[in-house]
Amino acid sequence: MNTEPNTSNNAPRQLLHLRMDAAVDNALEHIRDNKIVIAIFSIASAVGDFGLLWHIIGVVRAIGSIDRLLQALIFSILIGIESLILNQGIKRLFRRSRPTEKGDTRFALRKPRTSSFPSGHSSSAFFSALVLTYFTAWPWWLLFYTFALIIATSRVGVRIHHASDVIAGAFAGTLMGVIGLLVLRHYGV
What we know:
The protein has 189 residues and is mainly alpha-helical. It has a single domain (11-186), classed as Up-down Bundle (Vanadium-containing Chloroperoxidase, domain 1). It is built from 7 helices and no strands. α2 (35-48) crosses α6 (138-157), α4 packs antiparallel against α5 and α5 (120-135) packs antiparallel against α6.
């Protein structure tokens, strides 16, 4: 299914998401030249590549504990499964083009290899934040979701995703995270 505009009966719904994408892109434009924003968005996009930040958090949590080491291993496997489902499964159904081919030139980015919809960074971020809540206590949850929100927002900020890609990615990641939590509870991990 292609999510780009067409003249079918779905055009009004599609135009709504295109208007939202344009409005968010325009709202972010005034901060894209800010050096701090450039640094934050560039770093957030980079540490979101391949779920790098989330793997690092898992490993750091594992220091000094065999139980947490097992959790980190399971967590990394779950991130890999989430990525495989999203990038090799769901994205192939849509094949939406990106706002720009390589992103906004103001930002240091890796060129993506998959289509735009839904955002893999956003999915991985919200999946990981949710799964990490299973392994940690309350104060950490806020940090994990803050990281997820920054990574997701950065993808629109650097013009590698549309806002609707990021929202759909957050939804997909959260849904897969809920399934992941059910599996963890079922197996008593």
